[in-house]
């Protein structure tokens, strides 16, 4: 019995750290930080109501917390790290191949793992297979594992998935529905505390900014893109930086500020060249 309680405490700590949450962040508006500390140290489990809210913030159920094995969680995390590496590089063909590994889907049992799987799958179906219908189905299925309209705490993955759903809807011509998802994801990203933000959220700003630009709402687009560029700079990241910079130039151009737009176009072009160099450096020419 003692061994089981210890496993729960270790699992809780591992899940919290994997989601980049401090004990204070996990406890915020739910309970005292000391409650989390005692639970992770196997001293005392919170009551059911508190435990339910903690699990909701971690995007898992109470049953999954009780049954989860840290070793299995770690092994699955390693498998997803390999997929994630190519995903942030937007090498969707490589991601698609990794998702086809035998027994990968059968090995997933945490809702957050299943959510990631369908997030990656939906992205590949859109960018590789060019299939908007199946992409939307996969993205929505992945989101449904943890997200609902009344949810108090939204994860960064959920924010990204809402944005991607909006992007696919836009590309499918369903612009009214796209606006709802894109605006929602942007608002969520803006409200997240800095400690929980990750550089991958840059795509949220680009997706929404691009939509507003296409709608000729240049004033609002300029605000969103400026927020996106500031966000990227905070993380010293190149993720979607070229796209946001180029979009900023296009907005200035449409506003009749052509001279101000030129440096942004030049910078965006230089960053695209840098990405090409990085791609060439990653190729193994000797084994071609």
TrEMBL record:
An example of a GO molecular function for this protein is:
DNA binding
List residues of the HTH cro/C1-type domain: 12-65
Q: Which PROSITE patterns match?
A: HTH_CROC1
Q: What is this protein called?
A: HTH cro/C1-type domain-containing protein
Q: Which organism is it from?
A: Enterococcus aquimarinus
What Pfam families is this protein classified in?
HTH_3 (PF01381)
High-level lineage:
Bacteria, Bacillati, Bacillota, Bacilli, Lactobacillales
Q: Which domain of life is it from?
A: Bacteria
């Amino acid at each position: 019995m003692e061994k089981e309680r210890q496993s729960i405490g270790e699992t809780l700590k591992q899940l919290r750290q994997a989601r980049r949450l401090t004990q204070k962040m996990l406890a915020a508006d739910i309970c005292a930080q000391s409650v989390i500390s005692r639970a992770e140290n196997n001293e005392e489990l919170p009551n059911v109501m508190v435990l339910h809210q903690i699990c909701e913030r971690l995007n898992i159920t109470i049953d999954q917390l009780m049954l989860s094995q840290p070793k299995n969680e770690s092994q699955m995390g390693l498998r997803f790290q390999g997929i994630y590496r190519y995903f942030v590089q937007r090498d969707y063909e490589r991601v698609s191949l990794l998702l086809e590994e035998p027994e990968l889907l059968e090995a997933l049992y945490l809702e957050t793992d299943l959510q990631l799987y369908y997030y990656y799958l939906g992205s590949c179906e859109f960018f590789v297979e060019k299939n908007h219908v199946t992409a939307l189905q996969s993205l929505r299925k992945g989101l449904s594992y943890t997200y609902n309209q009344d949810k108090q705490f939204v994860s960064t993955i959920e924010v990204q998935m809402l944005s991607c759903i909006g992007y696919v809807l836009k590309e499918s011509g369903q612009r009214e529905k796209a606006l709802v998802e894109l605006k929602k994801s942007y608002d969520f990203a803006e409200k997240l505390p800095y400690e929980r933000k990750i550089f991958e959220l840059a795509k949220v700003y680009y997706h929404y900014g691009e939509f507003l630009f296409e709608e000729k709402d240049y004033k609002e687009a300029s605000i969103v893109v400026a927020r996106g560029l500031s966000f990227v700079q905070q993380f010293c990241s190149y993720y979607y930086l070229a796209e946001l910079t180029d979009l900023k130039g296009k907005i200035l151009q449409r506003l009749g500020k052509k001279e101000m737009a030129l440096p942004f176009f030049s910078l965006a072009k230089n960053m695209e060249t840098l990405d090409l160099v990085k791609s060439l450096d990653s190729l193994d020419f000797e084994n071609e």
